Amino acid sequence: MRNGNLVSLKGISKIYNTGKVKVTALDEINLDFGRGEFIAIIGPSGSGKSTLMNIIGCLDTPSGGAYLLDGHSVAEMGIHQLAGIRNKKIGFIFQNFNLLPYATAYENVELPMIFAGLPGNHRKEKIMSNLAMVGLSDRADHKPTELSGGEMQRVAIARALANDPEVILADEPTGNLDSRSGDEIIRVFENLNEQGRSIITITHDMSIAKRCHRIIKIRDGIIESDTRNGNGVN
Amino acid sequence: MRLLIVLKQFLQDIRKQKLRTFLTTFGIIWGTAATIILVAFGEGLYKYQQKRFHGLGDRITIIWSGRTSRPYNGLPKNRRIRFTDEDVDMLKREVHGISVASPEYSRSASITYKRKTFNQDLLGIYPEWGIARNIIPEAGGRFIDEIDQEYRKRVVFLGTKVRDNLFGEGVNPVGEYVTIKGVPFLVIGVMKDKSQNSSYSGRDRHKMFVASTTFQTMFDRRYPNNMVYQVAEGVSSGAVLKKVYSSLGRKYKFDPDDEEALMVWDTVKSEEQWKPFFEGFKLFLGIIGVFTLIVGGIGTANIMYVVVKERTREIGVKIALGATRAHIMGQIIFESLLITAAGGTLGFFVAKFFEFIFPKFGLGEYVGDPIIAADAVIVTISIIGGMGFLAGFFPARRASRLNPVEALRL
Q: Can you give the pTM of this predicted structure?
């Protein structure tokens, strides 16, 4: 593993100009985290946690401050490079799964590989092993409508892992799931983290947050607290 | 596999937008068919006119004797210039580019078969006159030949209508005897009816033909009414005519630039004068068709905008998963091209079917039957292709510029 922090945010702010009113979603956030961390971001709605997540995921650009991803300044990257980072370095997981409805589980997992330009004969093995990892080997040919919520989210995890990203960004991954399915998802996360993968998840559920190693609490665009759980690896 | 996903997405889109997709595709079908059919009509009309024009003759020039309009070499103006068979033979020998030449003697004569008598135009000509005028005998008959010419035979070749009037429609009168001005003639053939849109003394189907030598003997004629010659392919009819003037001018001592010494109808030139009109007409029809097609294209662009709008969230997801602009745009342009290609292909077959069915209505006699020319199809295909691309490009560009955060929030 390389040295240095995976993500380093210095004075990151995000200001939305909605006509005459200026809304400060993030107010000079400083935050670092390294490889292998398992982080929960919590906070009330509108606190700016999703904005923070989108900036870390290179989906949104900050209004001010510097963001170094793996030592490289994201602000200096072109759209093509950013697409590459979203494709290979980051794996996104959404609250409402966001699977392509007309594609099978297999094809959904395949999508990021297609974007990466991976040749067809290299994909199959990886797709099947990813589906096996989330316990859905037998669901490869099923469409999202034929899967339960928990299963859909597990397909989404397999998809997020398609190109072996360094970090998984999950925006309330259990928000639409019952507690049992949610628990399964978190267990998958724990397994992934044990294998050394960084995971950042937004959550409302304190019982989930407590299973992470570090809890960052955001309120009104600033970090209110940044605590490490006792059982943390770091 | 990737193509499969793109196709699945496409099918999903058209399932969601059945009516809209149908109407859009219909617009393209209509536009394509309209363009191809309209141009095909232009082409058909042109070909039809050309054919009817060739009913008079193929690349022929007709010359009548005239009067000089200016003094020449001490001779006064207003002299009558009259040519003979020898002059026709001389021109054919001397002027390069004349492939066929014949004098034409004509007068009205009565023709009788059994109890029926008609007055018809009788023409005395060389056998090769038939070549110049596209005369084709009906099966079982023949045109005037060299032997008839040499022996002044009393044989007659009948125009289609003359036969119809005298013997009845479709009857083969070959071998029968008719009397012309009281002299018995053997019928040797009947002209296969031809479409002819121009003439100078009535259509060929209303005439009867005998050898020029026979005509001369019967009516004691020395000067033909006019002559007809055919200009070889690839030779300028204007250049040939100039040589005809100088050749005859030398013999009859008139100024080769004195146009009124001979009266001329150069059908090659007349036909060429019509050509720009038909080309312009075809272009006009083509433009009307292309505008129809453009309306179809706008419809396609419209549906692609709807597709982009409906798929906004999905595009956001794809961007989050690392899709580049090319990936996002490629899909939408591909779908647009697919719609236009499908519409274009169907439209082509509609046009092809029309080309096949139209002649069955028998309207071709008035406007000609449509002919789908390869160049019109190629131009239409290029336009459809370009339009399909553009109709996809602009919505695709909008899609690729979507803000993923906003797209995902939907």
A: 0.71
Asked if residue A200 is part of any domain, the answer here is: yes
Residue of B nearest to A162 (CA): B321
- Does B11 lie at the interface with A, CB-CB under 8 angstroms? yes
How far does A55 lie from chain B, in Å, by closest CA? 10
Domain chopping of chain B, boundaries: 2-53+274-409, 82-253
| H/E element, A150 | helix A149-160
Give the CATH number for residue A192. 3.40.50.300
According to DSSP, the β-strands at B183-190 and B98-113 are: unpaired
Give the C-alpha separation, B302 to B42, whole Å: 32
d(CA B230, CA B237): 9
Of A79 and B23, the one with more pLDDT: A79
pLDDT exceeds cutoff 50 at A126: yes
**Minimum Cα–Cα distance from B321: chain A residue:** A87
- In B, minimum Cα distance to A51 occurs at B405
Domains: count for chain A:
1
ipTM of the complex: 0.91
Domain, as residue range, for A41 = 36-64+77-228
- Indicate if the pLDDT at residue A3 is higher than 60: no
Interchain pair A115, B321: CB under 8 A: yes
Three-class DSSP labels, chain A: CCCCCCEEEEEEEEEEEECCEEEEEEEEEEEEECCCCEEEEECCCCCCHHHHHHHHCCCCCCCEEEEEECCEEHHHCCHHHHHHHHHHCEEEECCCCCCCCCCCHHHHHHHHHHHHCCCHHHHHHHHHHHHHHCCCHHHCCCCHHHCCHHHHHHHHHHHHCCCCCCEEEEECCCCCCCHHHHHHHHHHHHHHHHCCCEEEEECCCHHHHCCCCEEEEEECCEEEEEEECCCCCC
Q: Average of pLDDT values for B186-195? A: 92
The reply to whether residue B327 touches residue A115, judged by beta carbons under 8 angstroms, is yes
Q: Which pair of tokens denotes residue B364? A: 């071709």
